[in-house]
Protein backbone atom coordinates (compact mmCIF):
# COMPACT_ATOMS: atom_id res chain seq x y z
CA UNK A 1 0.00 0.00 0.00
CA UNK A 2 2.84 2.39 0.87
CA UNK A 3 4.51 1.78 -2.51
CA UNK A 4 1.29 2.70 -4.29
CA UNK A 5 0.74 5.84 -2.21
CA UNK A 6 4.28 7.10 -2.85
CA UNK A 7 3.98 6.43 -6.59
CA UNK A 8 0.77 8.41 -6.94
CA UNK A 9 2.03 11.30 -4.79
CA UNK A 10 5.08 11.63 -7.06
CA UNK A 11 2.91 11.51 -10.17
CA UNK A 12 0.76 14.25 -8.66
CA UNK A 13 3.78 16.59 -8.75
CA UNK A 14 4.42 16.08 -12.48
CA UNK A 15 2.46 19.19 -13.64
CA UNK A 16 5.11 21.29 -11.95
CA UNK A 17 7.97 19.60 -13.82
CA UNK A 18 7.11 19.18 -17.50
CA UNK A 19 6.56 22.87 -18.31
CA UNK A 20 10.20 23.36 -17.27
CA UNK A 21 11.26 21.28 -20.29
CA UNK A 22 9.90 23.72 -22.86
CA UNK A 23 10.68 24.67 -25.62
CA UNK A 24 11.17 20.93 -26.24
CA UNK A 25 8.15 19.40 -27.98
CA UNK A 26 6.06 16.68 -26.36
CA UNK A 27 7.57 13.96 -28.59
CA UNK A 28 11.13 15.13 -27.85
CA UNK A 29 10.41 15.07 -24.12
CA UNK A 30 8.95 11.58 -24.48
CA UNK A 31 12.07 10.36 -26.34
CA UNK A 32 14.33 11.73 -23.60
CA UNK A 33 12.23 10.08 -20.90
CA UNK A 34 12.60 6.73 -22.67
CA UNK A 35 16.35 7.04 -23.29
CA UNK A 36 17.33 8.22 -19.81
CA UNK A 37 14.97 5.77 -18.12
CA UNK A 38 16.41 2.90 -20.18
CA UNK A 39 19.96 3.96 -19.26
CA UNK A 40 19.12 4.21 -15.57
CA UNK A 41 17.39 0.82 -15.53
CA UNK A 42 20.32 -0.78 -17.38
CA UNK A 43 22.68 0.46 -14.67
CA UNK A 44 20.31 -0.77 -11.96
CA UNK A 45 20.05 -4.27 -13.46
CA UNK A 46 23.82 -4.43 -13.86
CA UNK A 47 24.37 -3.53 -10.21
CA UNK A 48 21.71 -5.96 -8.94
CA UNK A 49 22.61 -8.71 -11.46
CA UNK A 50 19.07 -8.68 -12.75
CA UNK A 51 19.77 -9.33 -16.44
CA UNK A 52 19.36 -13.10 -16.01
CA UNK A 53 15.68 -12.58 -15.26
CA UNK A 54 15.12 -11.02 -18.68
CA UNK A 55 17.26 -13.61 -20.46
CA UNK A 56 15.07 -16.39 -19.09
CA UNK A 57 11.75 -14.61 -19.69
CA UNK A 58 9.32 -16.44 -21.96
CA UNK A 59 8.24 -15.16 -25.34
CA UNK A 60 4.73 -14.30 -24.11
CA UNK A 61 6.28 -12.35 -21.24
CA UNK A 62 8.36 -10.32 -23.71
CA UNK A 63 5.24 -9.68 -25.81
CA UNK A 64 3.44 -8.37 -22.73
CA UNK A 65 6.39 -6.23 -21.68
CA UNK A 66 6.66 -4.79 -25.20
CA UNK A 67 2.94 -4.01 -25.24
CA UNK A 68 3.24 -2.44 -21.78
CA UNK A 69 6.09 -0.26 -23.05
CA UNK A 70 4.00 1.00 -25.97
CA UNK A 71 1.06 1.74 -23.67
CA UNK A 72 3.07 3.62 -21.06
CA UNK A 73 4.83 5.63 -23.78
CA UNK A 74 1.45 6.59 -25.23
CA UNK A 75 0.27 7.56 -21.76
CA UNK A 76 3.38 9.71 -21.21
CA UNK A 77 2.89 11.46 -24.55
CA UNK A 78 -0.78 12.26 -23.92
CA UNK A 79 0.04 13.53 -20.45
CA UNK A 80 2.86 15.79 -21.64
CA UNK A 81 0.62 17.24 -24.36
CA UNK A 82 -2.15 17.90 -21.83
CA UNK A 83 0.08 19.56 -19.23
CA UNK A 84 2.19 21.66 -21.61
CA UNK A 85 -0.87 22.84 -23.55
CA UNK A 86 -2.68 24.11 -20.45
CA UNK A 87 -5.09 21.18 -20.04
CA UNK A 88 -4.07 19.97 -16.59
CA UNK A 89 -7.75 19.60 -15.62
CA UNK A 90 -8.27 17.22 -18.56
CA UNK A 91 -5.30 15.18 -17.35
CA UNK A 92 -6.83 15.11 -13.88
CA UNK A 93 -10.15 13.98 -15.32
CA UNK A 94 -8.40 11.12 -17.11
CA UNK A 95 -6.87 9.90 -13.89
CA UNK A 96 -10.18 10.26 -12.08
CA UNK A 97 -11.74 7.96 -14.69
CA UNK A 98 -8.82 5.52 -14.78
CA UNK A 99 -9.44 3.73 -11.45
CA UNK A 100 -12.93 2.80 -12.61
CA UNK A 101 -11.41 1.51 -15.85
CA UNK A 102 -9.04 -0.57 -13.70
CA UNK A 103 -12.01 -1.93 -11.78
CA UNK A 104 -13.77 -2.97 -15.00
CA UNK A 105 -10.62 -4.60 -16.34
CA UNK A 106 -10.18 -6.47 -13.09
CA UNK A 107 -13.72 -7.80 -13.39
CA UNK A 108 -13.72 -8.59 -17.10
CA UNK A 109 -10.17 -9.96 -17.46
CA UNK A 110 -9.04 -11.13 -14.03
CA UNK A 111 -12.39 -12.33 -12.75
CA UNK A 112 -12.43 -9.98 -9.74
CA UNK A 113 -15.88 -9.63 -8.17
CA UNK A 114 -17.87 -6.41 -8.45
CA UNK A 115 -20.20 -5.60 -5.61
CA UNK A 116 -23.39 -3.57 -6.07
CA UNK A 117 -21.89 -0.34 -4.76
CA UNK A 118 -18.89 -0.76 -7.06
CA UNK A 119 -21.20 -1.33 -10.01
CA UNK A 120 -23.15 1.82 -9.10
CA UNK A 121 -19.90 3.81 -8.96
CA UNK A 122 -18.79 2.58 -12.38
CA UNK A 123 -22.18 3.33 -13.97
CA UNK A 124 -22.26 6.81 -12.43
CA UNK A 125 -18.78 7.52 -13.83
CA UNK A 126 -19.99 6.35 -17.25
CA UNK A 127 -22.89 8.81 -17.02
CA UNK A 128 -20.40 11.56 -16.16
CA UNK A 129 -18.27 10.77 -19.20
CA UNK A 130 -21.38 10.76 -21.40
CA UNK A 131 -22.38 14.14 -19.96
CA UNK A 132 -18.94 15.61 -20.66
CA UNK A 133 -19.15 14.24 -24.19
CA UNK A 134 -22.55 15.86 -24.79
CA UNK A 135 -21.62 19.30 -23.46
CA UNK A 136 -18.25 19.27 -25.21
CA UNK A 137 -19.57 18.06 -28.56
CA UNK A 138 -17.01 15.23 -28.53
CA UNK A 139 -15.63 12.70 -26.05
CA UNK A 140 -12.98 13.97 -23.61
CA UNK A 141 -10.23 12.52 -25.80
CA UNK A 142 -7.24 13.43 -23.64
CA UNK A 143 -8.91 12.16 -20.47
CA UNK A 144 -10.11 8.90 -22.03
CA UNK A 145 -6.73 8.34 -23.69
CA UNK A 146 -4.96 8.65 -20.33
CA UNK A 147 -7.48 6.44 -18.56
CA UNK A 148 -7.45 3.63 -21.10
CA UNK A 149 -3.69 3.49 -21.72
CA UNK A 150 -2.80 3.45 -18.05
CA UNK A 151 -5.62 1.08 -17.13
CA UNK A 152 -4.50 -1.54 -19.66
CA UNK A 153 -0.87 -0.93 -18.67
CA UNK A 154 -1.71 -1.78 -15.06
CA UNK A 155 -3.48 -4.93 -16.21
CA UNK A 156 -0.46 -6.08 -18.22
CA UNK A 157 1.91 -5.31 -15.33
CA UNK A 158 -0.13 -7.60 -13.10
CA UNK A 159 0.24 -10.44 -15.61
CA UNK A 160 3.98 -10.03 -16.31
CA UNK A 161 5.98 -12.72 -14.50
CA UNK A 162 9.14 -10.71 -13.83
CA UNK A 163 10.15 -8.30 -11.11
CA UNK A 164 9.26 -4.61 -11.32
CA UNK A 165 12.79 -3.40 -12.18
CA UNK A 166 13.26 -6.05 -14.86
CA UNK A 167 9.87 -5.28 -16.40
CA UNK A 168 10.49 -1.54 -16.49
CA UNK A 169 13.92 -2.08 -18.01
CA UNK A 170 12.41 -4.23 -20.76
CA UNK A 171 9.65 -1.70 -21.47
CA UNK A 172 12.10 1.17 -21.94
CA UNK A 173 14.76 -0.84 -23.78
CA UNK A 174 12.23 -2.05 -26.34
CA UNK A 175 11.42 1.58 -27.21
CA UNK A 176 14.94 2.98 -26.81
CA UNK A 177 16.10 2.43 -30.45
CA UNK A 178 13.12 4.38 -31.80
CA UNK A 179 13.62 7.16 -29.24
CA UNK A 180 17.35 7.38 -29.95
CA UNK A 181 16.77 7.51 -33.70
CA UNK A 182 14.24 10.30 -33.30
CA UNK A 183 16.56 12.37 -31.11
CA UNK A 184 19.39 11.87 -33.58
CA UNK A 185 17.14 13.10 -36.37
CA UNK A 186 16.20 16.21 -34.37
CA UNK A 187 19.81 17.10 -33.64
CA UNK A 188 21.03 16.52 -37.21
CA UNK A 189 18.14 18.56 -38.60
CA UNK A 190 18.78 21.40 -36.13
CA UNK A 191 15.33 21.22 -34.53
CA UNK A 192 16.34 19.53 -31.28
CA UNK A 193 16.63 21.49 -28.04
CA UNK A 194 18.89 19.24 -25.94
CA UNK A 195 22.13 20.85 -27.14
CA UNK A 196 20.88 24.30 -28.09
CA UNK A 197 19.19 25.52 -24.89
CA UNK A 198 22.11 25.34 -22.47
CA UNK A 199 23.34 22.83 -19.88
CA UNK A 200 20.46 23.52 -17.51
CA UNK A 201 17.92 22.44 -20.12
CA UNK A 202 19.93 19.31 -20.92
CA UNK A 203 20.12 18.44 -17.20
CA UNK A 204 16.35 18.75 -16.87
CA UNK A 205 15.81 16.47 -19.87
CA UNK A 206 18.13 13.90 -18.30
CA UNK A 207 16.34 14.27 -14.96
CA UNK A 208 13.11 13.30 -16.69
CA UNK A 209 14.44 9.73 -16.74
CA UNK A 210 14.90 9.70 -12.97
CA UNK A 211 11.45 11.07 -12.20
CA UNK A 212 10.03 8.56 -14.66
CA UNK A 213 11.69 5.51 -13.15
CA UNK A 214 11.11 6.05 -9.43
CA UNK A 215 7.27 6.15 -9.36
CA UNK A 216 7.03 3.38 -11.97
CA UNK A 217 9.21 1.10 -9.83
CA UNK A 218 6.98 1.85 -6.85
CA UNK A 219 3.87 1.23 -8.97
CA UNK A 220 5.26 -2.06 -10.33
CA UNK A 221 5.91 -3.29 -6.80
CA UNK A 222 2.42 -2.28 -5.67
CA UNK A 223 0.67 -4.10 -8.55
CA UNK A 224 2.39 -7.34 -7.54
CA UNK A 225 1.03 -7.47 -4.00
CA UNK A 226 -2.36 -5.70 -3.85
CA UNK A 227 -5.54 -6.13 -5.95
CA UNK A 228 -5.98 -4.16 -9.16
CA UNK A 229 -9.13 -2.55 -7.76
CA UNK A 230 -7.13 -1.25 -4.77
CA UNK A 231 -4.50 0.12 -7.14
CA UNK A 232 -7.30 1.95 -8.91
CA UNK A 233 -8.57 3.59 -5.75
CA UNK A 234 -5.11 4.76 -4.66
CA UNK A 235 -4.78 6.55 -7.98
CA UNK A 236 -7.25 9.23 -6.88
CA UNK A 237 -4.38 10.86 -5.01
CA UNK A 238 -2.80 11.91 -8.32
CA UNK A 239 -5.77 13.60 -10.05
CA UNK A 240 -6.73 15.36 -6.82
CA UNK A 241 -3.29 16.97 -6.69
CA UNK A 242 -3.48 17.77 -10.42
CA UNK A 243 -6.91 19.36 -10.07
CA UNK A 244 -5.69 21.57 -7.23
CA UNK A 245 -2.72 22.57 -9.39
CA UNK A 246 -5.01 23.42 -12.32
CA UNK A 247 -7.31 25.55 -10.17
CA UNK A 248 -4.92 27.38 -7.88
CA UNK A 249 -1.55 27.45 -9.65
CA UNK A 250 -2.16 27.73 -13.40
CA UNK A 251 -5.69 29.20 -12.97
CA UNK A 252 -7.44 27.04 -15.57
CA UNK A 253 -11.06 27.90 -16.29
CA UNK A 254 -13.60 25.11 -15.82
CA UNK A 255 -17.14 25.81 -17.02
CA UNK A 256 -20.15 25.06 -14.78
CA UNK A 257 -21.22 22.30 -17.18
CA UNK A 258 -17.85 20.56 -16.83
CA UNK A 259 -18.05 20.92 -13.06
CA UNK A 260 -21.25 18.83 -13.19
CA UNK A 261 -19.32 15.99 -14.85
CA UNK A 262 -16.46 16.27 -12.38
CA UNK A 263 -18.84 16.22 -9.40
CA UNK A 264 -20.58 13.09 -10.73
CA UNK A 265 -17.22 11.34 -10.93
CA UNK A 266 -16.32 12.46 -7.41
CA UNK A 267 -19.62 11.06 -6.12
CA UNK A 268 -18.72 7.77 -7.81
CA UNK A 269 -15.37 7.90 -6.02
CA UNK A 270 -17.04 8.45 -2.65
CA UNK A 271 -19.39 5.49 -3.25
CA UNK A 272 -16.51 3.24 -4.20
CA UNK A 273 -14.27 4.29 -1.30
CA UNK A 274 -17.10 3.91 1.21
CA UNK A 275 -17.84 0.42 -0.08
CA UNK A 276 -14.16 -0.59 -0.03
CA UNK A 277 -13.76 0.73 3.53
CA UNK A 278 -16.82 -1.18 4.73
CA UNK A 279 -15.63 -4.36 3.05
CA UNK A 280 -12.19 -4.03 4.66
CA UNK A 281 -13.71 -3.61 8.11
CA UNK A 282 -15.94 -6.66 7.72
CA UNK A 283 -12.97 -8.71 6.53
CA UNK A 284 -10.93 -7.68 9.57
CA UNK A 285 -13.79 -8.68 11.87
CA UNK A 286 -14.00 -12.05 10.15
CA UNK A 287 -10.29 -12.64 10.75
CA UNK A 288 -10.54 -11.66 14.39
CA UNK A 289 -13.38 -14.05 15.30
CA UNK A 290 -11.34 -17.30 15.23
CA UNK A 291 -8.61 -15.67 17.32
CA UNK A 292 -11.10 -14.73 20.08
CA UNK A 293 -12.94 -18.04 19.89
CA UNK A 294 -9.81 -20.18 20.38
CA UNK A 295 -9.17 -19.31 24.07
CA UNK A 296 -12.80 -20.13 24.94
CA UNK A 297 -12.48 -23.53 23.35
CA UNK A 298 -9.24 -24.09 25.26
CA UNK A 299 -10.93 -23.17 28.53
CA UNK A 300 -13.73 -25.67 27.86
CA UNK A 301 -11.33 -28.54 27.21
CA UNK A 302 -9.29 -27.75 30.31
CA UNK A 303 -12.33 -28.36 32.61
CA UNK A 304 -12.76 -32.12 33.10
CA UNK A 305 -16.29 -33.42 32.74
CA UNK A 306 -17.80 -34.37 36.10
CA UNK A 307 -21.27 -35.64 35.15
CA UNK A 308 -22.84 -37.54 32.31
CA UNK A 309 -24.62 -34.33 31.25
CA UNK A 310 -21.30 -32.52 30.79
CA UNK A 311 -19.95 -35.44 28.80
CA UNK A 312 -22.84 -35.11 26.38
TrEMBL record:
Instruction: Give the membrane topology, semicolon-separated if more than one.
Output: Multi-pass membrane protein
Q: Write down the superkingdom of origin.
A: Bacteria
Per the record, GO CC terms?
Answer: plasma membrane
The portions of this protein that span the membrane are 36-54, 66-86, 92-110, 117-134, 140-156, 168-188, 200-219, 226-247, 259-278
Database matches in Pfam families = EamA
Q: Residue limits of the EamA domain? A: 2-133, 141-273
- Listed Low complexity bias regions: 289-304
Q: Extract the Gene3D superfamilies matched here.
A: 1.10.3730.20
Q: What is its main location?
A: membrane
Q: SUPFAM superfamilies from the xrefs? A: Multidrug resistance efflux transporter EmrE (SSF103481)
Keywords for this protein: Cell membrane, Membrane, Transmembrane, Transmembrane helix, Transport
Ranges for region Disordered: 284-312
Cellular localisation: Cell membrane
Q: Which NCBIfam families match?
A: rarD
Q: According to its UniProt record, which protein family does this protein belong to? A: Belongs to the EamA transporter family.
Q: What is this protein called?
A: EamA-like transporter family protein
Q: Which organism is it from?
A: Corynebacterium lowii
